[in-house]
C-alpha cells in the first residue's frame, strides 16, 4: 500500500470429576425462584409444560412424546427467531470456526432482528459460548449418552437460559425442545427434554459443587469448571496475579460479563462534547474515552466518519503512555509496527498530527504538541488497508516488522502491539477461550521476541518503544521483555506506571498491567524500553 503522502470442536474447561449427587429430582420450576421473562422469551407458549417434574418421559404431560400413544397430539412447535439465530451462530462457531462477533451482526441483519430480539439473540449466543465449559459438565451428568454436536449446542443454549438468564424454566425447556424438534427431529427433542428437565432441577450454585473438582484438592480445576475457562488459562491468570485465588476468580467472573462499549475521541477530529451529545459519558481514566451505555456505536456520527471509534480504554492508555515519555532531541517520526486493524494507529496518528489535546492544559505542560508523522505497518495487506481507512495523515505499508523495509535507527517512538493470544480480551470474543491452546503461547513467543528486537533496532538512541500485548500471560509479557533486556546492552526499561498516573493498581512495575476486574478494561500489558545512547 502506498504512502499516504502519497480476523473444531472446543475443548472442555477441565475435569468434571464430580463429587456427589444425582442430577434428577425436583421439577423444572422447583427451587430456582426464577421470576420474570427476558426480552421476548418469557411470555410465549412454551411447550415444555410443568407436569411430570424431573421425569425423563413425556414433554410436559402432553400425552406422550412425538404424538404416539393415546391423548392429544403435541402442539406444533413454534419457531423462535432470536433462539434460532443464536443456535445458528453456535453451530457456525462449532462447525466452521466462525468468529461470533463478526457473524452475529450479519445474522441479525439477515433475519431482521432488532431491539430486544437482537439483544436476546446476542445474549443467548455470547452467554452460551462463554459458559459452555460449565454447561458441558452439567449436561454430561444429565444425559445417558453423549449428545450429537447439533443437539449439544441446543442443550447448551437451554442450559444457559435455565442457569444464567432469568427465563422461566418452562419457557427455557419448551423453546429449546421446540427448536430441537424443528431443526433436528422428534427423537432428539425427547432426549433434549429429559436432559433439560434434569438441568432445571438445580440452580447453577447447586450444580457447581456437584460437577466441579474440589476447591481444596484441585483449586485450578474447580475454577475452570465454575467459571467456564480452560484449565491452562486459569493457571496462567493465577500466575499473572501472583497466585491469588480470590483475585483469579474475580478476573474469571469479569471475563464472563458483557463488556461496556467504550469509544475513543480522536483528538483534533472529534470532541468529548460531540460524543456526549450522542449519549456517551466521559471515561474513568483516558481523557479520550467515552462510555456508550446503550445503542449501536455505528450510529454515532463521529464513529461512522472515523473521527471517533470503538476502542477499549486500556488500548487508548497504552498508546497515550508512549506519547507521554519525554525524548530528547527531535520527535518527528513514529512507527506503529503491528498496526492492523488500526485502533492504536488511529489515536497515535491524531496525536502525532494535532498533539495530545486533552493533555495540553495547565496540568500537563509536557503533553506532546503535535507535528510528528506516523508510519503504520502490518504484515497483512487487508489489515493494513483497515489502518489506511482509520488514519488520516499516517503513511501505511504492508510490511513484515521482522524484515522491515525501513532503515534502522531512525524512529523516535515505536509502538509494538505484538500479535498475542488475546487472553486479555476474552470478554469481547466469547469463543476465543476455547480456540487457543498452550502451544500458541510458545509459537507466538518466538515472533514476539523477533519483533521486539526489530522494534529496538528501528529506534534511534534516546527513542522509546512500547511493547504491548492484549494478554496478561507472563510468557507473552514480562518474560519476553526480560529476554530482550538480557540479550542486548543498548536498552533500559522505564517505569510505565509513571506515564499512567491516573490509573491505580497497575502492579509492581516497571511494566503496567491492566485488568478487567480492576479497571473494567481489557488485560493490556505495556512495557516501555528506551534505547540508550551508549551501550549500558
Ligand atoms: C494485536 S494486533 C495489533 C492491533 C492494533 N495495534 C490495534 O490497536 O488495532 C497484531 C497485528 O500484528 C500483525 N502482525 C503479525 N505478525 C507481524 C509481523 N511479522 N510484522 C508486522 N505485523 C505483524 C497482525 O497482522 C495483526 O494485525
Automatic annotation (TrEMBL):
A single GO molecular function term of this UniProt record: RNA methyltransferase activity
Keyword Metal-binding carried by entry: no
Signal peptide region: none
Principal EC category: transferase
EC number: 2.1.1.176
PROSITE patterns listed in its UniProt record: SAM_MT_RSMB_NOP
Domain SAM-dependent MTase RsmB/NOP-type: 237-532
Annotated catalytic residues: 470 (nucleophile)
Cited InterPro entries: MeTrfase_RsmB-F_NOP2_cat (IPR049560), MeTrfase_RsmB-F_NOP2_dom (IPR001678), NusB-like_sf (IPR035926), NusB_RsmB_TIM44 (IPR006027), RCMT (IPR023267), SAM-dependent_MTases_sf (IPR029063)
Residues that bind S-adenosyl-L-methionine: 338-344, 400, 417
Region (Disordered): 1-81
Keywords of the record: Methyltransferase, RNA-binding, S-adenosyl-L-methionine, Transferase
Gene Ontology biological-process entries: regulation of DNA-templated transcription; RNA methylation
Methyltransferase among keywords: yes
Coiled coil: none
Start-end of Gly residues biased regions: 14-69
Family under the similarity heading: Belongs to the class I-like SAM-binding methyltransferase superfamily. RsmB/NOP family.
Role played: May act as RNA methyltransferase.
Protein name: 16S rRNA (Cytosine967-C5)-methyltransferase
Origin species: Nonomuraea dietziae
Amino acid at each position: 500500500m502506498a504512502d499516504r503522502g502519497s480476523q473444531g470442536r472446543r475443548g472442555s474447561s477441565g475435569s468434571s470429576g464430580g463429587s456427589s449427587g444425582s442430577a434428577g429430582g425436583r421439577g423444572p420450576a422447583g427451587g430456582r425462584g426464577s421470576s420474570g421473562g427476558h426480552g421476548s422469551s418469557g411470555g410465549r407458549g412454551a411447550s415444555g409444560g410443568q407436569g411430570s417434574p424431573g421425569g425423563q418421559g413425556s414433554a410436559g404431560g402432553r400425552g406422550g412424546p412425538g404424538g404416539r400413544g393415546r391423548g392429544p397430539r403435541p402442539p406444533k412447535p413454534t419457531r423462535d427467531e432470536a433462539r434460532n439465530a443464536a443456535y445458528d451462530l453456535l453451530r457456525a462457531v462449532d462447525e466452521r470456526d466462525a468468529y461470533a462477533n463478526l457473524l452475529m451482526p450479519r445474522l441479525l441483519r439477515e433475519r431482521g432482528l432488532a431491539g430486544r430480539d437482537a439483544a436476546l439473540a446476542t445474549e443467548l449466543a455470547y452467554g452460551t459460548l462463554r459458559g459452555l465449559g460449565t454447561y458441558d459438565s452439567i449436561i454430561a451428568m444429565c444425559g445417558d449418552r453423549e449428545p450429537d454436536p447439533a443437539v449439544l449446542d441446543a442443550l447448551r443454549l437451554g442450559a444457559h437460559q435455565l442457569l444464567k438468564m432469568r427465563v422461566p424454566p418452562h419457557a427455557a425447556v419448551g423453546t429449546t425442545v421446540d427448536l430441537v424438534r424443528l431443526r433436528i427431529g422428534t427423537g432428539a427433542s425427547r432426549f433434549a427434554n429429559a436432559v433439560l428437565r434434569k438441568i432445571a432441577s438445580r440452580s447453577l450454585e447447586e450444580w457447581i459443587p456437584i460437577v466441579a473438582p474440589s476447591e481444596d484438592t484441585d483449586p485450578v480445576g474447580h475454577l475452570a469448571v465454575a467459571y467456564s475457562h480452560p484449565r491452562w488459562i486459569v493457571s496462567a491468570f493465577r500466575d499473572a496475579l501472583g497466585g491469588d485465588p480470590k483475585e483469579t476468580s474475580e478476573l474469571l467472573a469479569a471475563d464472563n460479563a458483557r463488556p461496556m462499549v467504550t469509544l475513543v475521541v480522536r483528538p483534533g477530529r472529534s470532541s468529548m462534547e460531540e460524543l456526549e451529545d450522542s449519549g456517551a459519558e466521559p471515561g474513568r481514566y483516558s481523557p479520550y474515552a467515552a462510555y456508550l451505555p446503550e445503542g449501536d456505536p455505528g450510529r454515532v456520527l463521529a464513529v461512522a466518519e472515523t473521527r471517533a471509534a470503538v476502542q477499549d480504554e486500556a488500548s487508548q492508555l497504552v498508546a497515550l503512555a508512549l506519547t507521554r515519555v519525554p525524548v530528547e532531541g527531535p520527535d518527528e517520526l513514529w512507527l506503529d509496527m503491528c498496526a492492523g486493524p488500526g485502533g492504536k494507529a488511529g489515536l497515535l496518528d491524531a496525536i502525532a498530527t494535532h498533539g495530545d489535546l486533552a493533555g495540553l492544559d495547565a496540568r500537563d505542560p509536557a503533553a506532546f504538541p503535535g507535528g510528528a508523522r506516523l508510519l503504520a505497518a502490518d504484515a497483512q495487506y487487508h489489515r493494513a488497508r483497515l489502518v489506511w481507512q482509520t488514519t488520516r495523515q499516517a503513511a501505511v505499508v504492508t510490511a513484515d516488522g521482522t524484515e522491515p523495509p525501513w532503515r534502522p535507527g531512525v524512529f523516535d517512538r515505536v509502538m509494538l502491539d505484538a500479535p498475542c493470544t488475546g487472553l486479555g480480551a476474552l470478554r469481547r470474543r466469547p469463543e476465543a477461550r476455547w480456540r487457543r491452546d498452550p502451544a500458541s503461547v510458545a509459537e507466538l513467543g518466538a515472533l514476539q521476541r523477533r519483533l521486539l528486537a526489530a522494534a529496538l533496532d528501528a529506534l534511534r538512541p534516546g527513542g522509546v518503544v512500547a511493547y504491548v500485548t492484549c494478554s496478561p500471560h507472563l510468557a507473552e509479557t514480562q518474560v519476553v521483555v526480560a529476554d530482550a533486556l538480557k540479550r542486548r546492552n543498548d536498552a533500559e526499561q522505564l517505569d510505565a506506571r509513571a506515564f499512567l498516573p491516573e490509573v491505580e493498581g497497575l502492579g509492581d512495575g516497571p511494566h503496567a498491567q491492566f485488568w478487567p476486574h480492576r479497571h473494567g478494561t481489557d488485560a493490556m500489558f505495556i512495557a516501555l524500553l528506551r534505547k540508550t545512547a551508549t551501550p549500558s
